[in-house]
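I am still getting used to backbone structure tokens and would like to learn alongside you. Please make up or recall a protein chain and show it to me in full. Would you write everything just below, so we can both look at the same thing?
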Amino acid sequence: MIKTGSYNTLTIDRHTSVGLFLTDEEGNDILLPNKYVPEDYELGDKMTVFCYLDHDERPVATTLKPAITLGEFGLLKVADVSQIGAFMNWGLEKHLFVPFREQARKMEEGKHYLVYLYEDEKTGRLVGSSKTDRFLSNDEVTVDENQEVDLIVKRFTDLGVEVIINNRHKGLVYQDEIFRKLHLGEHLKGYIKKIREDNKIDVALQVQGVRNLEPSAEKVLKTLKDNGGYLPLHDKSDPETISRELQMSKKSFKKAVGILYKKRRITIEEGGIRLIES
């Protein structure tokens, strides 16, 4: 079955005046217009293409790569706003439609919004929605504490930053545990810090507990090497300076320094730390 909104690996079946027709194992076919036909091909070759509905709502294949695929979240820019909704640039000829009913707040042309791509059950059309909470659930948590997870920055709040976890759950990174600037829609790695009784999830951007010592030490070591073997940071440095320079807390920095000192990789001077050349 050819799935719209997704990548499909299909077989080149025949060439026509309008392009190539590609087929799946069940004999279903779809047109790859001439503009996307590769220079060199043979009938029977396999091709991986993205399939969606064109301006006339007909299934069509393309070699262009969209910003998001079915069931994914992504940050997209509004190309146009009409009387029925917004149209977003997602890398394909036909813009992605976000009807007014699917807008968390009224979208404006030229601005970026985090949206989810889904298929309308009645029409089969691909639709975007900025009401992202509809597509997230913490009812059945599928992650464990200390697990590494994929995150997408969802929203900024007074408490911190809301994130999407593994494309299915919602979590929070507290403000005092963020040591660099985050951006809406940014993809990054994180760690499950705590799963509360009500299934709310606390997330950290750094490895927790003892496991955090080695990565922090490695980061300090790399920064030392990148800065000629010296850093003007020490246990009296203010947390803001450490966060700005190393994107870690002062506590993590002090632990990292302790590890490097015990391993005789650095010396501690009055004004900072210095790398011991091996």
